[in-house]
Amino acid sequence: MPGDVPIAPLTSGAWMGDFPLYPLSLPQGGNIMKPRWILVLFSLMVMMGIGGCSPLGFFSSSPSRAFESFLDDYFNGAFALRPSSTEPLAWLSATADSLRAVSASRAMRELTAIDTSQLSMDERIDWLQMEAMLKREVRDRSLNIPLRIPGQYLTLGTIYGQVARRRPPTPEEWKNIRKAIDDARAAMETGRRQLHEPPPLWVRLTVNTAARYEEFLGEPLVTRIKTAAPDSLRPGLLKSTEETRRALVRFRTYLSDTLKPGKDDSWGVGEEYYDWLLKEVHFLPYNSAQLIEEGWRRHNETKKLLKDLAQRIDPEKSWKEVIEEMKSRHPEPGGITEAYRVQSDRARRLLVDLDLVAIPEPETLTFVPTPPALRETYAWAGYGGITIQDKVPTGRFFVTDIVPEMSPDQVEEKLRAQNRGWITVIALHEGYPGHHLQNLYAMKSSRKVRSRFGSTYYGEGWGLYAESWMARSGFYQTTDDSLAWLHMRLWRTARVIIDPSIHTGRMTYEQAVRFFVEEVGLERSAAEAEVNRYTTWPTQAPSYIIGWLEIEKLKEELRQALGEQFSEKQFVETLLGVGSLPLELLKRAVRYQYGYQLGKVVANE
Question: Has residue 18 got a pLDDT over 70?
Fold first, then answer.
């Protein structure tokens, strides 16, 4: 989900707060400037503002106005500092990383000066989410991201979607593509200067990604330029593309042959930081040990359900044998993307036909190949967010399909992973009523914080809630559908065990991969892609099961309170409408919305 991004992304985009320093200025005219003591006081406040405390907050007539002013300043870049360098992609520099932490500290000082006791419930919730985001921005400085993450210096992901889609880029978009291709060379040079003993796993992943980008900048992009780019831009685009392709070869060779790697498990963040994230950022009542314990409990429960279903399907076989047979029922080569599209369309029709939830209009969902930078970590599919095309919100559904360089064995393994049962469940999880619907509702939000930042525990918790909801609504039509649903839940419960274990030293990378293969029944390549992703995104993997369980608890609480008045349609629309929040804040926001229906106003918690 957008908003709750990996701590260690394999590729990176522009940091949201990287804007010029917003100039503070004195108001012109007006009686407020006439008394000398007010002039002196205001001058002092301006000086304080330069240190991170805006005078606007002091002159606000209420904490609500002060908070609104703070948010305007923050999202307009008033607190952001950036390097004086004019080099392309200067935000990738180690200096920029330090300045981001300083900027967040300045913003935190002003945020904490606001009297939260006088804020409304929604404002208080937004304040808490903002505080958590800023605390993480400050704390993450200790991770030394510019030195340790080679993948962030591969910046071509921004152009992949523009070039790969059916509609050709406009002339203006081609100019932006040319700039991105040029900037990519500068980014790789920055990486060569800054990288210092990164984790070997991340080096290998980046080498593989660079090779895929080399391929993309070869025949696929060259053909697209020759057939779709304006004549006046074509020579420059072709020249820049070839120069960047060669730069990718050099960067890949540098990573493989020259750069000294760090320790094998140096991607782990450690127990103290992991527990801090759970408590301070995600607002969860768990530490890593408790999370692992909860994971085992849910894992064993789910395995029993899976065994029971497998026995009903074929009493003579184990659940693993039944799963292996399910994997043999898959699309033919070249048919994976279409299979996802068919199931997504069927899910949308069910939502409309049964009036399960309102779908904001207009909208559409497109199916595109998973970008090269994500293929190492997205074994099946993923949601790529919404862009506006021809004034229509357009979701991007990434599909990890077969690619030409795969061997026959790799093709067979990919087809078995992308079996029809799993495709049915993933299609609704990523599309309707999963992440695509979630994002459509998020676009409607007027809450500045919630529309810009998010929580993976809400995002992925909703995805699993959608799977369960659609099961109750009759979406799963075959035994493969139901089997895949439980098999995928077993996979998600394993995540709750594995993620905290690998980051706190309780489990090695290889042990985690074997756990997925032997305990869950994943294909080896899929298991590796899973664990690769967890190394880059601590605390995200448990969010599916934990988020789903908390949403189900909230629904049951409201069902008990409302009795026959309870409507699941109202519940899901309320949940989607309050925005992307950490679970504890989400529960407060939903309870507050329901407070009037229950005949009471929910007090600030």
Answer: no
Please tell me what DSSP assigns to residue 341: H
Q: How many domains does the chain have?
A: 3
Question: Distance between CA atoms of 602 and 592, rounded to whole angstroms?
Answer: 5
From 257, 286, 308, the end of a domain falls on 257
The answer on pLDDT for 27 being more than 60 is no
Rounded to whole angstroms, how far apart are CA atoms 575 and 98? 37
For CA atoms 529, 535, 540, 543, the dihedral sign is positive
**How far is residue 241's CA from residue 230's CA, in Å, rounded to a whole number?**
15
- Over residues 57-78, the mean pLDDT reads 83
Torsion over CA: 478, 482, 487, 488 (sign): positive
Q: Is residue 267 assigned to a domain?
A: no
CB 148 within 8 A of CB 262: yes
Whether residues 288 and 243 share a domain: the answer is no
Burial of 204 from C-beta contacts in 10 A (0-12 / 13-18 / 19+): middle
pLDDT band at 486 (very low <50, low <70, confident <90, very high): very high
3-class DSSP state of 89: coil
pLDDT number for residue 85: 56
Report the alpha-carbon distance of residue 474 to residue 464 in Å, rounded. Answer: 16
How many angstroms separate the first and last alpha carbons of the chain? 27
Would you say residue 572 lies in a domain? no
The answer to the question of residue 14 being in a domain is no
Query: Are 482 and 409 found together in one domain?
Result: yes
- Contact yes or no for 394/387 (Cβ under 8 A): yes
**pLDDT for residue 603:** 40
Model confidence pLDDT, tens digit, residues 488-537: 999 999 999 999 999 999 999 999 999 999 999 888 988 999 999 999 99
8 Å CB contact between 100 and 90:
no
Mean pLDDT value across residues 398-404: 86
Nearest CA to 586 out of 401, 403, 404, 462 is that of: 462
Residues 471, 429: contact at Cβ < 8 Å?
Answer: no
Q: How many CB atoms lie under 10 A from the CB of residue 510?
A: 10
Structural domain of 168: 154-257
Whether pLDDT at 21 is above 50 = no
- How many other C-beta atoms can be found within 10 angstroms of the C-beta atom of residue 514? 14
Given a contact cutoff of 8 angstroms between Cβ atoms, the answer to whether 365 and 437 are in contact is no
Work out whether strand 364-369 and strand 392-399 pair parallel, antiparallel, or are unpaired: parallel
pLDDT band, residue 376 (cuts 50/70/90): confident
Residue 592 lies in a domain: no
- Dist. CA 235–CA 241, nearest whole Å: 10
